[in-house]
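Lest this sound abstract, we think one record worth quoting, the chain in one-letter code, the fold tokenised, each line plainly labelled:

>
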Amino acid sequence: MSGRSSCGRRAIFLQAATVLPALMFLSACVVGPHYKRADASVPQAYKEAPPGWKAAAPGDQIARGKWWEIFHDAQLNALEERVNVSNQTLKAAYEQFLQARALVRYYRADYYPTVTAGASGAYTRPSQNRPLSTAAATKKNTTDILLPVTVSWEPDVFGRVRRTVEAARSNAQASAADLESVSLSVHSELANDYFQMRALDAEERLLHSTVAAYEKALQLTQNRHTGGVASAVDVAQAQTQLETTRAQAVDIQVQRAQFEHAIAVLIGEPASNFAFAQAPWTTPPPAIPIGLPSDLLERRPDIAAAERRMSATNAQIGVARAAYFPALTLTGSGGFESSSITTWLSGPSGFLSAGASAAVTAFDVGRRRAASEQAQAAYEQSVANYRQAVLVSFQEVEDNLAALRILDQEAQRQQEAIAAAERSLNLSLNRYRGGVTTYLEVTTAQGIALSNERTAVQILARRMNASVLLIQALGGGWDATQLPSAKLTPPDVTKSR
């Protein structure tokens, strides 16, 4: 009996040894189109690049990811370093990537057999009064002790599992690129808020210095009024100008407080616990190395995410097409079964069985065809999204190049306007002291001078904002080679990249 059982098991093993190589050979067949990146329109040069700007590779400070260091501001550097450690939006994006990476491992498990094992025992005492029972049967109590091991495997003959894993891997890489996009966006938002806050500090300092000048002018007017040279109207006009400027200096604090609170949230700290000392910003933005337009496709994480999703939807076409082919399943079970625990694990108690089945859907009223068409349409949608992302990326670069070029020209003209307004104010003051004109001319000149100086500060803030947005549009020093490999090692969000 045991000899026949051993021969049966050997026959099963020989059959498996014959079938498995054939399955491995068939597994080389993968249905569905092979992925190829779609073409996108790339210009030869940036139209809005300022004259004299060299299309060179980014500097070391941008290339290694700490692009904010190009501004040479220690306080900004310290704040930016805290973003990767404490920003909750970035943390959420990181956890989303970990979910996508785990999903890849989930689908990879389909490459291998599923093995289940267990143990059971049962004791049966038949009823003596059951229908159609015999005296011999009703007196026979039975014990069944079972230790089974079951193996089930669906060979990936037509590549359904491989295409599924390919799609999951591409989606995980897209999630990693999304993480980089969030990181770049958060760092850029912090830099913008920082420069806006410091520009407000510069504007407030300007208003305070103007208040000091207006106080002296008011004192002069009051003295002239006491001496009978100036009228009460002149005093009222000087006092109105002074109080208006004081109110403007107070109003600046509202916007500054909002930017300070926004920075606190970005670095993961309650707004109530964060305070930043006033530090006016007066330095013009540095020159930003813009590189070549062709580099932009590799330097923007949002483009990389769109490209990876295009790869994922391409793989889903193969998954849909694999449904047209048979699904082959191999099953096997073995273990020990006995009526007594003393003979439970002995040789004669062993059992083994193996089988194979194949199933194919013969008629589904067009369901598989609809799934294939849906997968194809999803791929075409991802291609359109990828090309749109490329177009938007060049638009953003051109927008901020134009802003920097035009604002630089405007800043030069504004300095000339400030100089002219200062000359006009000095002439008006001299005329007023000489009794040639009323104080109305002085207040008008003062208002024009202050307006021009405030405009110059606001232009500088816009230039700094355009510089940050340009760096963001260029990818912030990131490169597509930093995408995780097939092992999908997670990016390190605790350190600046």
Observations:
- Residues 128 and 460 are 100 Å apart (CA to CA).
- The chain is about 60% helix and 10% strand.
- The chain has two domains: 1-30+116-155+326-359, 33-111+157-325+367-482.
- The beta strands are 114-117, 120-124, 142-153, 327-338, 350-359.
